[in-house]
């Protein structure tokens, strides 16, 4: 079988280099084009020395990259870039996986409010699929355009899906109106750029919340929670910046419905994710660590019920750059091209 010709727009960013790392080890993918406007002509391995001997391409400006000759193009760019090029690529038969937010929200008003720009191609948005594989596997197989989920949304949606799926109105397990997601991200979540709040002397040896009164990932999480639930959902979402390079830890609180007191929540999670290659429901009493998923596409979940009371606490860890971004994007590519879902994604986490 011929290899899939892959283009990456935004190859110098953190999700871009993570795509390069994963795709350079992928048995069915051939890197054909990698763009950067600032580093046009620079060999990739000169910037990212971990790729020496693995990637022999140079960055090229997007206009020279011949993206229409690829089978799939990943956009590892800020929002607004993928939607500006989507129609031209689709017309040339190229599939699209956007790591930004252009194809994550079906609610156009919400997109425009949070991303401060009109959507360039609502028709393409309507046919696109939200690329959270564990929820949308079959739709992704047939998709031409995938909106790869945000990092926080991946942890919160997978942490809540077993509790809410299809349960609006009928035998609720938890109170869907008072959900809380208390989430922490490593600094690479902010991208590779020079900004004051992510300087070493600002972000290291420090811990703080941000976006408490509103964050772009909140509407994304709520839209997809409501879809899977089949009814309204109330969520308080508080992200934090934590002094790690990569990694994400989400602590999710859900109030157990009085009629669901006798449910075995550990078993519920184990059964829901039994066949998922990248979701590990850990044994009772576990406290998953971010380093247990570092550089791998795994997400690990632990379910707690302190004092056997009515508060459920779900702990979720992932690598924000892998399952939270580029690994999940490769998982989507595998499905879109009929490959084994785990092709090129067998990396074991780096520990310690
Ligand atoms: N970091 C994470 O943990 C994470 C997780 C999930 C999703 N995401 C999303 O993934 C996307 C990329 O994130 P990142 O952290 O990798 O960003 P980043 O480190 O800031 O890199 C952005 C990349 O996009 C390129 N770029 C910027 N503006 C462009 C334009 N107008 N046209 C073409 N290329 C452009 C940049 O290169 P040049 O300027 O040289 O062209 C650079 O290579 C973002 O939308 C982000 O929200 C990030």
Structure description:
The protein is α/β, with parallel strands linked by helices. The protein has 2 domains: 4-127, NAD(P)-binding Rossmann-like Domain (Rossmann fold, 3-Layer(aba) Sandwich), CATH 3.40.50; 152-320, Dihydrodipicolinate Reductase, domain 2, CATH 3.30.360. It has 11 helices and 13 strands. Strands 8-9-7-10-13-12-11 form a 7-stranded mixed sheet. Helix 6 links the parallel strand 5 (129-130) and strand 6 (145-147). NADP nicotinamide-adenine-dinucleotide phosphate (NAP) is lined by residues 9-16, 36-39, 62, 76-79, 81, 99-100, 150-151, 188-189, 191-193, 320-321, 324-325. The active site is at 151. It catalyses: N-acetyl-L-glutamate 5-semialdehyde + phosphate + NADP(+) = N-acetyl-L-glutamyl 5-phosphate + NADPH + H(+).
Please state the structural category: alpha/beta
The CATH superfamily title of the largest domain: Dihydrodipicolinate Reductase, domain 2
Rg for CA atoms? 20 Å
CATH fold-level name of the largest domain: Dihydrodipicolinate Reductase, domain 2
Number of continuous helical runs: 11
Shape: globular
Domain Semialdehyde dehydrogenase NAD-binding: 5-143
EC number: 1.2.1.38
Organism: Pigmentiphaga kullae
GO molecular function: N-acetyl-gamma-glutamyl-phosphate reductase activity; NAD binding; NADP+ binding
How does the SSE layout of this entry go?
Layout: E1 4-9, H1 14-23, E2 29-34, H2 44-47, E3 72-75, H3 81-91, E4 95-98, H4 108-115, H5 122-127, E5 129-130, H6 133-141, E6 145-147, H7 151-164, E7 179-185, H8 200-203, E8 208-209, H9 217-229, E9 235-241, E10 248-255, H10 265-272, E11 279-281, E12 299-304, E13 311-318, H11 322-336
Parallel strand pairs: 1-2, 1-3, 3-4, 4-6, 5-6, 7-9, 11-12
Antiparallel strand pairs: 7-10, 8-9, 10-13, 12-13
Helix pairs in contact: 1-11, 6-11, 7-9
The structure holds NADP nicotinamide-adenine-dinucleotide phosphate.
